[in-house]
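Support case: user asked for a sample of complex input and structure output to validate their parser. Sending the pair below.
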Amino acid sequence: MLDATPRQDRLPDAPGIGYKPQHFSEILEDSGAVRWLEIHAENYMGDGGRPLTQLRALSERFAISVHGVGLSIGGEGRLDPDHLGRLKRLVGWLNPVSFSEHLAWSTHGAEFLNDLLPLPYTDATLARVADHIDEVQEALGRRMLLENPSSYLAFTESTWSETDFLAELTRRTGCGLLLDVNNVFVSATNLGYSPQGYIEAYPLGAVGEIHLGGHDADTDDHGAPLLIDSHGREVADPVWALLDHALARSGPKPILIEWDNDVPDWPVLRAEAARARDALARIAA
Amino acid sequence: MSVTQDDFRAALLDAAAPVPAGLTDGAGAPAGRRYNVYRNNVAVSLREALHEGFPTIAKLLGAQNMDGLAGIFLRRHPPSSPLMMLYGEAFPDFLAGMPQLAHLGYLADVARLDLAMRQSYHAADADPIDPADLAALPPERLVETRLTLAPALRLIRSAWPIHAIWRFNTEEGAPRPEPGAQDVVILRPGFDPEPHLLPPGGADVIAALHQGHSLGAALDAATGRVPDFDLTPTLALLLQGGAIIALT
């Protein structure tokens, strides 16, 4: 290897994997097509032990993306200063290539609800989310990426489309976006719009990373399909097709495979990463 | 119709509460069971965190009882921080306060052991002293010496045989627990916390050292309760477990 410790300022336009500790040795031995790793910020906010030691070792070999799941950027209340402080410490010592969070809320008063809860898209929520993104980018001293959610329902009070809402956030705050293609497919199916149309309306120029994950299928009260963003299986074929649709318009991007529940053996994840590499190769051809 | 986060939260952990008006499907019909996806995500993720965080309790109670208790606990004590690795600090006291568990008096202390194992796993790293440094001290200096203990060390004193219960539910072929009080020290020589059974008086020594007392004072604390207390095994345990990180 020519450069043993590359320090890029962006993730490579190549496959990455949501890191799980049980794969530590295998990733170091045979990473396959995987060029970078993503971690959930909150799992590395302990004081020490194996998690931080493994992360330090991995960061010497791979570009790292820190993905927060607990900042509650869409919350009505102010951002938790303690949590923002912990995030600043982590980003400070790790110096990851990328930091991303969700267009969602999870903290309510003193409670943390451990799910990505939805918000209406109004002028008021836009202003609040923009303020929170400004505060995060200020605290971390870097640009962050914001991820589009999986939606199971809509708010009658919404006056913005999700894509316009995200585009306006990038304009106001300078943040980038994380395009979760599985979330697009899940939301479009659940709310009855065209996933391709959503991609075409998405501000693809701001996209710094793409997510892919598996979903489960259920039905609503009327028997209509209700897809659940479960991250517990392979990426579905129509989502791979939607990725091709996105890549054809966006050009090459870093693509992450997320698999958080019923985590499979490493070769299964490696095969998913190889499929993402093939999708990138198709647009390069 | 505006749905505040207070409104959204109010029905989230209460299956009997109506789904907030103003939430719909894609065609404008009431959201109905679509809202249950969030109810389910919150309850299931917190329940799983409790199962994973208290593996010995889950084993002792069985999956179904554990689910039921976790369901009550998570509604009374939702997490207060996004650090799920620390969730469940109130679980031992919650178990102790459940009338239907009163006949299982040991549960709360076993839950404290599970919680302490998890805290130890995430505790700060610290380099242990060279045992030769301690051995090199002349006896009169030794009694005055203060031992700084590793951040990953945890001490649990119990009127129940918690070490034996833990082993019986963790190790294949471990003997059945016999009645009796057991004190446990959790040490983390590398990355994996290990619970060790302490001899009578051993917990007095460790507690005194942890409070900053000298080795002599810690020994007095033990012999006050256990007149023929022998310090050697406890000290050897701490040294082998990498639990002494400074001498002052």
